[in-house]
Structure formats: structure tokens, C-alpha cells
Amino acid sequence: MAKLPASFYRNENVVEVAKQLLGKMLFTYIDGKLTGGIITETEAYDGVVDKACHAYGGRNTGRTATMYLAGGVTYVYLCYGIHHLLNVVSGTVGNPQAVLIRAIEPKEGIELMLGRRKMEKLASRITAGPGALSQALGIDKQLNAKELSANEIWIEDIGRQYTEDEIIATTRIGVAYAQEHALWPFRFYLKGNKYVSKPNK
Predict the structure, then answer these.
(1) ∠ CA(154), CA(192), CA(36), 5° rounding?
(2) Could you tell me if 182 and 172 are in contact, meaning their C-beta atoms sit under 8 angstroms apart?
């Protein structure tokens, strides 16, 4: 296994990046403790042209500034004042694209994840949903704007490739405000995997 190179994230086709992240392994190493899992669900946000994206229309604020960096860094924000959500910045400098990591299949440090989620036994809800996976992996604002090539949070290629038939493409969740852009099929998940935020087809 090897960490994804910077070139992987610099692709300006954010939909392609979102699909290619499926099956990759996301890790955090916090306070000397390792947790990780296979990415099973993602959502693409296509920068200034996407009404569902925080940077739509060129919005560049204290919160969204991270999105304007070169691909390969994290963008972590607090949703509804409750959940930290992890995004992977993609594209080139000044093109604020990002991929929301919506779910993982837990593989490493499961006992620690259970403790963080206040769960006694393993169930799909442990990491199914972006807020759940961030809690399980210990992700908060301290991990915003971190290089994905460093040793706190990173993504590895474990050699899994999926065909179009193995990936479900559907509309994004919770972006009704984006009007017609809410209908874009920019959410992707692995067919048949129980660790996703909505039931599989």
C-alpha cells in the first residue's frame, strides 16, 4: 500500500476523483492511535459553478479558503454546529473543488472507533454518514488544511478498482438549496456495501 501521490488530487475532473476515491483506504493517526477504513461513499462538489458548493460563484471566506489550495489537503468544517465533515480538496490552485467523504468500511482500530462513537458492538452506522465517520476517526477542525501526504491523516491505494457497474451514481444529500444542481448525480457509493449512508439499490 502507498499514499496517494499529489498528482492524484490535482485532477480537475472532480467527478472522476470522487469515483476513484472509492476503495481507497482513509487513515487517521491521532494521539498515537491509528484508525482507518475503506472509502465506500463520496460526493463531488464542482467549485465555482456548483450551487451546492461552499465556493459557488467564487465565494472565498475564512471557511472556504482551504478549498482554493492545490488538491491534496483536507477541508474540514462543522455542519449544523454538530458534525465535523471531511472533504478532500482536489483540482489546482484557485479552483475550489472538493470531494466529501460520506462513509467508510472500518478496518483498523475498530475498538477505538466504537469507543468514540459510544457503541458496544459493530454496526454499519458506526461509519455510515459523514458525521459518523468523522467521529469514529477522531476528525475535527484540528485536521483542517492538513496535507494528505503527512502522518495525521492520509489516503492509501490498496489496489482495489471498481467498474461502473459496481458504483451507484445518484443525487447528493441535503443540498435542496442548490436548485437544479441538487439533481446532479454527484454522489457515488459501492453497490452492495452496507457501510453507506443510505440503503443500497
Answers:
(1) 20
(2) yes
Place of cell 462513537: 117
**Strand (E) or helix (H) holding 17:** helix 14-21
Interior/surface letters 131-140, b for 16+ CB within 10 angstroms, e for the rest: bbbbbbbbbe
Q: Is residue 113 exposed (0-12), middle (13-18) or buried (19+ Cβ within 10 Å)?
A: buried
| Average pLDDT of the segment spanning 136-144 | 96
Residue 199: the pLDDT is: 57
Indicate the range of 27-31, 59-63, 103-107, 146-150 predicted with least confidence: 59-63
Question: Half-sphere exposure of 141 toward its Cβ, with a 13 Å CA cutoff?
Answer: 9
User: Long-range contacts for 138-143 (Cβ within 8 Å, ≥24 apart)?
Assistant: 138/28, 138/30, 138/31, 138/33, 138/35, 139/28, 139/76, 139/84, 139/86, 140/76, 140/84, 141/76, 141/77, 141/78, 141/84, 143/28, 143/74, 143/76, 143/86
